[in-house]
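$ fold --in a.seq
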Amino acid sequence: MNGLAILYGNANVPLAKGICKHLDISPTKMTVGRFSEGEIRVAIEENIRGKDVFIVQPTCPPSNDNLMELLIMVDAVRRASAKRVTAVLPYYGYARQDRKDAPRVPITAKLVANLIVAAGAKRVLTMDLHANQIQGFFDIPVDHLYAINTLCDYFSEKKLKNLVVVSPDVGGIKMARAYAKRLKAGLAIVDKRRMSPDKTEVMHILGNVKGKNVILVDDIVATAGSLVEAIDVLKKKGVKDVYAAISHGILSGPAADRIKNCKELKELVTTDSIPLSAKARKVKSIKQVTIASLLAEAIQRIHNEESISCLFDETTR
């Protein structure tokens, strides 16, 4: 594809290679390594002057390392006289700190946006932001994709009957409603109270779930504490099988063990926006579906200056 170049760091190599395969192009040769003291070293080994460059680098754990790799790669591409630099962030880290919800705390999602723009990015391509308003933190165009089509296709093939989509909190109602409409399912909400940034307490289930098959939908699962607690309450309400559809499976800390030990959870299905840890890959109930074709199609359309709205499910607009 003339004038298009794909670069990637160490954050998610399999996904980047999958995108290149769908686009039928070879990734630009480059080195992303470390100096002896740990500083990041980047060297682009091909001419990219005048090219439309896309850098695939989710800022997933280790978040700080991957973010610095992204910033340095963007700077290197800008200084190599690329025509345009687009940061492709399937997962946008630090998104949970998107507002001042307590005294003397930062708005880190805005800080990271400023850093990406300052480094030289002219466009951002991302998916399922933790908060939609983060798009407004950037002073450059942001193309926001959704994983709903990919995840719904997976569950549609299962042909589940008597289905209810459950939002894990009030803030996720819009996403859950979109899944429910796409899957022609009912809708319920978990009413919970947040005790700390990593701990919540489930209070009630709003909606009819008794005797139903349930899909819990959320954008992020980190330690899986809230997820397991919600599943426990749902089981007490008499649901049948419980599934989870998650856009970004961070699965940090005790998450893999919690999911493995949660016998009530039939499957946790997540995208490959974040690579699974070795521990998570061993958990049979954790399934991963790829978004490589979605990102490849978006990249091709952006490169050709075409609309990407056709990639959105109509229920998510």
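$ fold --in b.seq
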Amino acid sequence: MEQERRHRSWYLGPIIVVTLLVGVLLGKGWERTGHATETYEELKTFSEVLTQIQKHYVDEVKSKDLVQGAIRGMLSTLDPHSAYMTPEMYKEIQVETKGEFGGVGIQIGIKENRLAVIAPIEGTPAQRAGIRAGDFITKVNDESTKDLTLMDAVQRMRGPKGTKVSVTIEREGTPEPLVFTLVRDIIKIESVRSKVIESNIAYIRLTQFQESTAKDLSRVLKQFREQKLQSTILDLRNNPGGLLTSAVDVSELFLGPGKLIVYIKGREGRKDEYVSRSKEQPDDYPMIVLVNEGSASASEIVAGAMQDWGRAVVIGTTTFGKGSVQTILPLADGSGLRLTTAKYYTPKGRSIQSTGITPDIVVKPKPVMVAKAGEKEKEGETRPQKSKEAPMPGSPRIGDEVTSKNNGGSTNASGEGSLEEDIQLQKAVELLKTWKIFKELRPL
């Protein structure tokens, strides 16, 4: 069973996927006579509608387009993360998990029944422009996103390198919409970044959970071990997720053997547990995990496991709350289906769906001071704003084209924590510095 699970494509990222009509309708229900009869009657109605459209609709339409539209409509009745992928989309999602794809660098999901930014990907046009986790996307190229599926929204924002796309954003604290004109680029994701802070603290930033993430992380941890570093900060902020197997493999590196990392429960209540198979006991050094509202799915699995086992102190703000599992199913014509098949739970049985991981220590990011677009920002100086909350550096007026960068109050453009401006990172470093002192205290 364990081997079977390892070879299935569980994907926890924030986009969506679909099924083929025949594949859905010819499921287990056909084994029961009553259900088979009911389904047959419904298929008869579907066939009649299809025939009438082909005969009488004012314009000639292709059967393929009608069937694909019906499939999309069928899946839209389920949840925002289940969707149909054309052969081209299916190829894209396979490339995406390997760390390179085309677009503007926005990971999206559905929140409050609206199209939301889970997180901008670091070093991409979206991140440099100042798009933030928690923003709501209301228009793409002046077309409303209302009733759009996630996959359709992704397709609208992707395109050839060098072409432009306009994105209209609604942001809390900003009274009027913000319009960002983004130039598409090839998005390359380096999932593991690291450096040494304060001469003896290992800082590791995970930007996404890809196939190679755990292997790359293991290599970094080995280097830090050889340097005899005494503590670690694992930064999962604005990490929108990725592969479930990658999240499990990453957690194994910190938890050691025999630890339950996550379990999933599907429609029939069956419980599939993912337990650490590592044979090595990791070093028992102090550890901090940083999270924010842009930490989703696989990031929440790792943070939840660390928190439940008491392996690390979680610092930051409450995470996104995507606790559902999508299985990617290939279809016969080269298309694919991403279908929500289960929900995942932390080792202590907490469901993260719609609630997220609450940090042990809540630390909100520092409010960002801004200047006019193109001007150099001055510390403590802002221009007058109508909104209660100042926008990020380089945030545009309506219609502005944006080329400036944004650090989001968490990481700089390179993706590494900036200790001078990052309050959450400062808190983590402060806690690690005092950790050893308090641990060595003994009552008289």
